[in-house]
């Protein structure tokens, strides 16, 4: 399949973009590291070399109070320009274009100096903002213009004004957060003067031949958000004020609707951009969960947008556009929308990277240079760790033989991809398989590695990535055939009844509850998904919300844990709330502080708060963690050949593909 619409240039009048792909804004954490801008330059340079039409940086504040965090990056003074020129020079030398995103956090600022239109605390930050005075409003507008002018001086091709996701500009526009009674509040016309004046003053400072993107909140997904008529009206005012391109913003950060997680259908919000296309004459960009060239091509070819924005897909693969242009999309390392190494890291104030591509944001530190001594390496287990090591070691020139006892590769990913909303894991397996073929890694399926093979075939190193096994529980009656583990369920080895108890409420327990409650994955049915989360495509109400509509209940599931702490406490920082919401939608019962006594024909006997209880369930599913599959470790070590453990066989606390793949990469570099 070719991608003519995706790869078609876009003429902006004073400049031309080489294709219709925008690398969307992502805060990497490098912006605040010592020497981080040199690393940032390498990161963006690889994406520019990879063919992307236009890059947008992570958010840079126009002033001190607008910072997301106390040490976050801002561009307000001439002496701050120099470090930015390192980035713009690198991108331009690679043949790319780059815009700097201007972002004022407003009440989302994670510090006590935050400001907002009104003194209203956000539900996701601990600090109450101060109300901006009329003078401070005018000063902030001026700061935006000053910062844009400095960005131009630093060599940026333009700026993106962040006007969505619930940040300061969005807070001024919405009556939800703007309770002012002066000229900056009250009527819609007054509330929108803030973004309009920002754009006008930026345009006056930077001149006509400078890109201004405005990220417009087209769908707030919060109560008392903007109406559709207000979205259209603001878009037209922005066009008149001098905006070059309008980018789509979906949902405030405090919205209780997922917008970018892996369970969100691909291209789930392109209909919003399409709705505005009929009203505008400047280019519009569609965004959110666009992760393949096929989706991007479809959106542009069907007239839903003029461009597509992809952020995390460029963490996963810097060569995304080049591979699409070469008509080899099967070689793209697809973003699976997991958030584990990108957004979860960002919110934990750690450097962002990517679960499927550990080199992301480590371009100056994690490189697979040719090995000085080429080795013959045996790898046991073709899960994420084993496959990652194999392709990275082969990239360095080692001869790699990958052994897998089962008839297919994937390991725990083969189980994870069966969970509703985690179908994207298929893409990682596909990517690894294609790389194994391309790099001539010898793959031996249905083959169990043993010591005699290692000795006979003269291997120099052994890498064990044999994974994990479900942790058994030795309790009375747990040898009953109705007590099974999560792997047996996902592999289809057992029939599960209508009433089920799940022991263990970590990530596996939550996934199993979802799996047992949902016959058809709503991720694969966008209209069903929109209804499930109460998103109104008709946009009849402000914010675009309506009453959620769920399918009939499928099973009665109860989720149990020994700990007395909140269920799902260890889930992903940016996705845990989604998993909890899904289980609530499916009416999954939850019990904490549980002691497990026995299982018999009456059901599962438990004790909660010193009170015995019998759960009359058809099945008990064990999701109580894993143990490392180490049964062959001693045998391998007996060969005298160096043995290395990576992935679950090394640490089995939780199923952690992020750690497993990075371990594989780091070991490949060290050998």
TrEMBL record:
In the N-terminal section; belongs to the NADH:flavin oxidoreductase/NADH oxidase family. InterPro entries: Aldolase_TIM (IPR013785), FAD/NAD-bd_sf (IPR036188), FAD/NAD-binding_dom (IPR023753), NADH:flavin_oxidoreductase (IPR051793), OxRdtase_FMN_N (IPR001155). Residues 6-328 form the NADH:flavin oxidoreductase/NADH oxidase N-terminal domain. Residues 376-655 form the FAD/NAD(P)-binding domain. It comes from the Bacteria. The keyword Metal-binding applies. It is an enzyme of class 1 (oxidoreductase). One of its GO terms (molecular function) is iron-sulfur cluster binding. This is 2,4-dienoyl-CoA reductase, putative. SUPFAM superfamilies: FAD/NAD(P)-binding domain, FMN-linked oxidoreductases, Nucleotide-binding domain.
